[in-house]
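User: Need the bound-state model for FE2/S2 (inorganic) cluster:
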Amino acid sequence: MKTVSPFRDLGEGRPEVEVLLNGAPLRLPEGMNLAAALLAAGVRSLRRTPVSGAERAPYCMMGACFDCLVEIGGVTRQACMLNVEAGMEITRPQEEITHVDG
Ligand code: FES
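Assistant: Bound-state model below.
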């Protein structure tokens, strides 16, 4: 049985603005939560864990898990704590993969 989603699409009806994701243009709803907008645009991974290199994506959406880290203007930020603004230059954080021996 199909049910109606209990969630309202907050991006619906908003004008889209262009941002850059790893240098590639992407159109997102202006003012929408950045992590939600990236997920809705099909972006499935924002960073890798420093130890295993496993890909991570937004999880808690409330600033607790830090799985939504991105760099904006060279500063590492939590995407779930930001809203989409025109001209944002978003990159994945520096990926330093460290392997633990033993
Ligand atoms: S999704 Fe958990 S801190 Fe952003």
